């Protein structure tokens, strides 16, 4: 029995409606009636009726506001508005908020019967569509099972349903162009998309095709789907039209654009789904950051990827970024991070290159912290693997920036400042590690002291007390030691070594080298032979 509620502030109107409806004949059941909007709202949320008769003019929460709430919270509810001749504005609001139909007071029996017949037909139609969707959900179980199977089990070819066997197929992956922190929203989108495919089956491939959908098996945002047709080959024009319809539906539901990676495949081959999924994901990873709402074919994307050269990872910006963090300078750290992000995430870069660069930076942060007897998990509460998984979902520079600028950089700076405030000796040890790691960059004791809110004269005296040298001599000795190590590589020129250890002025480097070693560069290199 389908459940019905009647809402009107006039009892005689409610009684008249209730007595005029042939309940048993239409398979309807009265589950509640209310005289004001607030009671009706609470009752509807509890009883979840299929059909609602609603008077638009009521005290308190009126029909217009109640209808808007019902449209938002119970979108499947059919609402029949009951209105007086003078309530035209209310009737207009009923149309805006998707009321199914309306009746004018006083309600005539023949008009009521006509509206009820239409409502029952609509309810039956919706129930039929729901059954189709539920059947589609059940039929997609094999698809999810194959996605979750471990590689190498060798059962895939035997797990394909009979309705799919021997058909040409394509596997596609859909992911939002911009990262959405939407926990749980993906399941709703998937159900709505599956519903659309069921409803519009007749409009593609002559109606003779199969479809399956599932969340991505590794927990990433997005979905994976497959379509199959009985003909020997998927008509490319029809496939493109279907995928564009999928994009349009997802954009309507989620309010953002989606790109699709697609791979045509043969169902009869063992391991077909795993390989096709990998190729579809690779196609998506090859999307240029400047491309939006793209449909990328695996074969074309693979060819394009092979012909392009990945830009080199910006190690220099990475080192400058780590140095700024270690010195506690947030402004400088964010500036260096922006330069690094611009290098790995400009519009000519691909989604895959952006993610790979960001992942490499996470590894660099972990190594840097490990050298200081710490780690990302202790510093920001998330281990490296969790951060890497978070980055796999982020295919746009803005979301990568948010992860670093809003989470990682503040957490690391807070940790560094907390350690530095414990005692001056910790700062000196950090300075020694800083010199060891960043001897090739401009280093200033004054800059370090300011960034750590420590008096420079005090820090200078403390440094000499702990190391036996002043800061300048300690840095120079480290650079000369590193230069001697590089001299053992015959291919390095002396001016190249100078730059690698932090001296842009080759002549000054030569003077410092002789002062520290007692030999010229040439004499020292000769002694190594």
From TrEMBL:
Domain of life: Bacteria
UniProt domain HTH araC/xylS-type: residue ranges: 429-527
Matches recorded under SMART domains: HTH_ARAC (SM00342), REC (SM00448)
KW Magnesium (keyword) present: no
An individual GO BP term: phosphorelay signal transduction system
Subcellular location: Cytoplasm
This protein's record includes keyword DNA-binding: yes
Domain Response regulatory as annotated: residue spans: 3-120
Alphabetized UniProt keyword annotations: Cytoplasm, DNA-binding, Phosphoprotein, Transcription, Transcription regulation, Two-component regulatory system
One Gene Ontology cellular component: cytoplasm
Protein name: Helix-turn-helix protein
Source organism: Cohnella phaseoli
Phylogenetic classification of the source organism: Bacteria, Bacillati, Bacillota, Bacilli, Bacillales
């Amino acid at each position: 029995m389908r459940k019905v509620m009647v809402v009107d502030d006039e009892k005689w109107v409610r009684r008249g409606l209730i007595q005029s409806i042939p309940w048993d004949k239409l398979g309807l059941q009265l589950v509640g009636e209310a005289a004001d909007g607030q009671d009706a709202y609470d009752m509807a949320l509890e009883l979840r009726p299929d059909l609602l008769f609603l008077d638009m003019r009521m005290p308190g929460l009126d029909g217009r506001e109640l209808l808007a709430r019902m449209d938002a919270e119970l979108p499947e509810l059919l609402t029949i508005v009951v209105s007086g001749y003078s309530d035209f504005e209310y009737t207009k609001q009923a149309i805006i908020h998707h009321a199914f139909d309306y009746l004018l007071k006083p309600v005539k029996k023949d008009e009521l019967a006509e509206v009820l017949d239409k409502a029952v037909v609509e309810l039956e139609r919706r129930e039929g569509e729901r059954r189709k969707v539920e059947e589609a959900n059940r039929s997609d179980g094999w698809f999810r099972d194959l996605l979750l199977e471990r590689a190498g089990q060798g059962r895939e070819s035997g797990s394909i349903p009979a309705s799919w066997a021997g058909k040409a197929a394509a596997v596609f992956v859909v992911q939002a162009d911009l990262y959405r922190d939407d926990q749980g929203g993906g399941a709703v989108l998937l159900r709505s998309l599956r519903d659309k495919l069921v409803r519009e089956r007749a409009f593609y491939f002559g109606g003779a095709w199969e479809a399956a959908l599932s969340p991505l098996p590794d927990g990433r945002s997005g979905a994976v789907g497959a379509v199959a047709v009985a003909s020997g080959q998927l008509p490319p024009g029809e496939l493109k039209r279907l995928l564009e319809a999928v994009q349009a539906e997802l954009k309507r539901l989620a309010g953002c654009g989606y790109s699709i990676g697609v791979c045509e495949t043969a169902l009869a081959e063992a391991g077909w789904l795993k390989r096709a999924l990998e190729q579809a994901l690779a196609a998506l990873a090859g999307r240029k950051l400047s491309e939006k709402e793209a449909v990328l074919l695996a074969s074309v994307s693979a060819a394009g990827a092979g012909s392009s050269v990945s830009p080199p990872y910006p190690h220099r910006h990475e080192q400058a970024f780590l140095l700024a963090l270690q010195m506690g300078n947030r402004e400088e750290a964010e500036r260096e991070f922006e330069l690094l992000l611009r290098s790995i995430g400009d519009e000519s870069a691909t989604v895959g290159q952006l993610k790979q660069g960001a992942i490499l930076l996470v590894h660099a942060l972990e190594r840097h912290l490990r050298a200081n007897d710490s780690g990302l998990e202790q510093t920001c509460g998330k281990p490296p693997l969790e951060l890497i998984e978070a980055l796999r979902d982020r295919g746009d520079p803005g979301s990568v920036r948010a992860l670093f600028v809003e989470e990682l950089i503040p957490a690391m700076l807070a940790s560094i400042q907390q350690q530095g405030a414990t005692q001056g000796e910790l700062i000196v040890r950090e300075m020694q590690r800083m010199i060891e790691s960043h001897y090739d960059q401009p280093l200033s004791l004054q800059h370090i002291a300011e960034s750590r809110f420590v008096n420079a004269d005090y820090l200078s005296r403390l440094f000499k007390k702990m190391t036996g040298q002043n800061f300048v001599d300690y840095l120079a000795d480290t650079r000369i030691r590193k230069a001697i190590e590089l001299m053992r590589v015959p291919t390095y020129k002396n001016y190249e070594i100078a730059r690698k250890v932090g001296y842009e002025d080759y002549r000054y480097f030569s003077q410092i080298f002789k002062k520290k070693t007692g030999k010229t560069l040439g004499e020292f290199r000769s002694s190594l032979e």
